[in-house]
Amino acid sequence: MVAARFIPRGSLIISESPLFTVHGDFTTLDKTAAAIEAKVSTLSAEQKAIFLALHNSQGSNMSTVVGIVKTNAHPLGVGARDCGIFPLCSRFNHSCASNASYTWVAASSKETIYAGKDIAVGEQITVNYLDESHLNQKRSDRRAALMRDFRFECSCNVCGASPREVAASDRRRLEIARLDGIIGGGMIVITNPPKCLQHCKDILRLYTEEGMNDDSLFKTYNDAFQVCIMHGDLARASAFATLAVSCLGAGDPTIDQVRPYVEHPERHQYAGMSNRWRTEKRLARKVGQNGFEKWLWERAG
Ligand SMILES: C[S@@+](CC[C@H](N)C(=O)[O-])C[C@H]1O[C@@H](n2cnc3c(N)ncnc32)[C@H](O)[C@@H]1O
Predict the structure, then answer these.
(1) Could you give the maximum distance between any two Cα atoms of the chain, in Å?
(2) Is the C-beta atom of 91 inside 6 A of ligand 1?
(3) Entry's SUPFAM superfamilies (predicted)?
(4) Which residue, 173, 210, 11, is CA-closest to 101?
(5) What is the whole-number distance in angstroms between the Cα of residue 2 and the centre of ligand 1?
(6) Most buried of 29, 79, 170, 229, CB within 10 angstroms?
(7) Are 211 and 97 in contact (CB under 8 A)?
(8) Which of 38, 34, 71, 33 is nearest to 52 (CA)?
């Protein structure tokens, strides 16, 4: 998939209904094959042709229909047992620094792909096939995960770079994972909030250096929001909530975890736990305002 025109960050690229969905027991290959083959046999000739035109990465390891589903199926929501086949969404290749991301929007029963960055004419549009735990590993581990699940050697911009660039990228990703692990441990948010905020700031810088300025940033802005709200800084909590929301496409249901707190940070369950940084919401500065970045990170250290 290549951009035929300039696509600004945040634009909806595709919103697609499934060709078909499968609900089933995918715990063994036999049960998976039975569920998929039963479903495919109900398709019209036209639907079957669309399905069979999709890429099969599994070779002769399994039947063609199961191979195509394994290569192309998308879960209908995080951790869902139902999956769907989306012929257009399936045409997007993977990149370890993707410029778009896909999300299942249950409300409209559609898979959607949003631009996570500005995408130039002629640029390939890519999504991320890896889960977060693999994305911040080094290239050899990411490639192993993609080889195991999709049977290809990743040749994206990050993985195909020079050995020196790959080594620098590996260092950045491992550092992101280390800092993220410290924040996720939970204690630092309470015991040392300035340091916790500094870790968020460092992760965001590393993501930017990695060219990963898309929905990977949502989690980190959300973490920064939580540090601020826990310590009573309603102004910066609101600013971080705004930044978190701006990382996701408009239809992404994850947005609802944070959007209400842009206007009402005081309604969050952590609000009022500590008054260490007490600052009124009305003092929140706006993204892009002069001195915004300096003000935003004033508590970090
Ligand atoms: C879901 S398909 C993507 C669309 C596929 N390229 C097509 O033309 O139909 C997944 C397959 O695309 C190829 N692919 C996707 N991302 C890749 C990458 N970063 N490096 C190498 N091959 C990739 C692999 O063969 C993989 O099994």
Answers:
(1) 66
(2) yes
(3) SET domain
(4) 11
(5) 13
(6) 229
(7) yes
(8) 71
Q: Average pLDDT over the chain, rounded to whole?
A: 92
For the stretch 94-133, pLDDT in tens is 999 999 998 888 889 999 999 999 999 999 999 999 988 8
Burial of 46 (0-12, 13-18, 19+ CB in 10 A): exposed
Residue carrying the six token digits 């499934």:
18
Cβ atoms of 40 and 51 within 8 Å: the answer is: yes
Q: How far is the CA of 192 from the centre of ligand 1 (A)?
A: 44
Q: Flag the least confident range among 37-51, 55-69, 152-166.
A: 55-69
Q: Which of 185, 227, 181 has its CA nearest to residue 203?
A: 181
Q: Which of 72, 74, 94 to mutate to test the pocket of ligand 1 (most atoms within 8 A of CB)?
A: 94
At what angle are helices 216-230 and 234-246 packed, to 10 degrees?
A: 170
Note the helical H segments in 73-138: 132-135
Q: Best of 55, 139, 155, 156 to mutate for ligand 1, by most ligand atoms within 8 A of CB? A: 55
Please state the pTM of the whole predicted model: 0.89
Q: Report how far residue 207's alpha carbon sits from residue 209's, in angstroms, rounded to the nearest whole number.
A: 5
Query: At a CB cut-off of 8 Å and minimum separation 6, what does 150 contact?
Result: 57, 71, 94, 129
State in Å: Cα 19 to ligand 1 middle: 20
| Ligand 1 site, residue 150, Cβ cutoff 6 A | yes
- DSSP letter string, 135-146: HTS-HHHHHHHH
Ligand 1 centre distance from Cα of residue 94 (Å): 6
